[in-house]
UniProtKB/TrEMBL annotation:
<dbReference type="InterPro" id="IPR038076">
    <property type="entry name" value="MgtE_N_sf"/>
</dbReference>
<dbReference type="InterPro" id="IPR000644">
    <property type="entry name" value="CBS_dom"/>
</dbReference>
<dbReference type="GO" id="GO:0015095">
    <property type="term" value="F:magnesium ion transmembrane transporter activity"/>
</dbReference>
<dbReference type="Pfam" id="PF00571">
    <property type="entry name" value="CBS"/>
</dbReference>
<dbReference type="InterPro" id="IPR027275">
    <property type="entry name" value="PRC-brl_dom"/>
</dbReference>
<dbReference type="InterPro" id="IPR006669">
    <property type="entry name" value="MgtE_transporter"/>
</dbReference>
<dbReference type="GO" id="GO:0016020">
    <property type="term" value="C:membrane"/>
</dbReference>
<feature type="domain" description="CBS">
    <location>
        <begin position="282"/>
        <end position="348"/>
    </location>
</feature>
<dbReference type="Pfam" id="PF05239">
    <property type="entry name" value="PRC"/>
</dbReference>
<dbReference type="Pfam" id="PF03448">
    <property type="entry name" value="MgtE_N"/>
</dbReference>
<dbReference type="InterPro" id="IPR046342">
    <property type="entry name" value="CBS_dom_sf"/>
</dbReference>
<dbReference type="Pfam" id="PF26205">
    <property type="entry name" value="SH3_actinomycetes"/>
</dbReference>
<feature type="domain" description="CBS">
    <location>
        <begin position="350"/>
        <end position="407"/>
    </location>
</feature>
<dbReference type="InterPro" id="IPR011033">
    <property type="entry name" value="PRC_barrel-like_sf"/>
</dbReference>
<protein>
    <submittedName>
        <fullName>Mg/Co/Ni transporter MgtE (Contains CBS domain)</fullName>
    </submittedName>
</protein>
<dbReference type="InterPro" id="IPR006668">
    <property type="entry name" value="Mg_transptr_MgtE_intracell_dom"/>
</dbReference>
<dbReference type="InterPro" id="IPR058838">
    <property type="entry name" value="SH3_actinomycetes"/>
</dbReference>
Amino acid sequence: MTTVTRAYVSRLAGLAVFDPNGDRVGKIRDVVIALRVGTASPRVLGLVVEVVARRRIFVPMGRVTAVDPGAVVLSSGTINLKRFEQRRGETLVLGELLDRSVTIIENGRPATVVDAGMEQQRTGEWQITRLAVQEPGRIGRRGQLHQLAWDEVSGLALSETTQGTETLIATYRELNAADLAHALQDLPIKRRHEVAEALDDERLADVLGELPEAEQVVILGTLADARAADVLEEMDPDDAADLLAELSNVDRNRLLELMEPDEAAPVRQLLQYSEDTAGGMMTSEPVILTPDATIAEALARVRAPELTPALASQVYVCRPPSATPTGRYLGLAHIQRLLREPPSSLVSGVLDDLEPLRPDTPLALVTQYFATYNLVAAPVVDEQGRLVGAVSVDDVLDHLLPENWRERARRG
């Protein structure tokens, strides 16, 4: 591999970090720098590296022996696995420097930082020496991009109040919702809320579902009521119900009134159940088919990308109506059984008559039910024999784990 002495930070993000023996340590998530007085180039203090269990640690630049196009290599020695905590005077390049508003000194025009280049000096110290900045563009066009030295722009030594989010969100584009939730929690509070505000409704809804409930409430509270209602509509009904249950009655009812009636109805239904029962854990939107549906139709339905693997593992057959609460529940069909039957056959001909759960079934019995029948999802049927939802194994685990398990997982 070719060792380089210059690198742009956005290209380092996600690179693997290896120890001298070639064992993978983790991957780079950010670069920590110390801004200096005046126009002096900032010193690179180290790397934020994500190791096992999504724990983020700090690796000093003095431990870096090689920066290669595809990896970073560390020197020998013990790695401090203490969780990274940003100190006073430290700045995260991806988390805080990108999207900053600056002024190009030569022409006095405003621009936005879109990347930062770091370079190793003769002393071995790394500094941020270059910036990629982009001027505002006309409607439908991108502005001019400049590669400038650090001292050719102004505005970075000041307290930033007009920092955008476009570039930072672009670096997070490939992260799944759980990883983005962890990344969001590692940002400063102000920056965290700016990024949440800039995410589209669907993406923010997915991320909220992966955050601790206390953090969900805080972020939802920073949004305008109309936007908060839109985000709740994008969430799975069970996740939205769990979040609304943490709010006061006044706030909960206000947001429910702002939601579309069709979106609010299943959430209201779920809020009726205690959270430690099958009704409180279930989703009201499993895959529901009528008795005349074919196996081909069932297989097409479970291919929907928005379905979790657990919910896609089986379909539920009910008399009309097909929205919960349905007509009379007839049974369920497992995906493995469907794959072994002719596509033209009716789903109703391969049903499993497994006794369903009741909405008031307590968590302990729900857990036993899943263990007894080796299930990843289970139907929930009311006293009238109507399907009202389905419990998936991830919801059961979420209730079995300690309340702060997401935060503990982030901290390792």
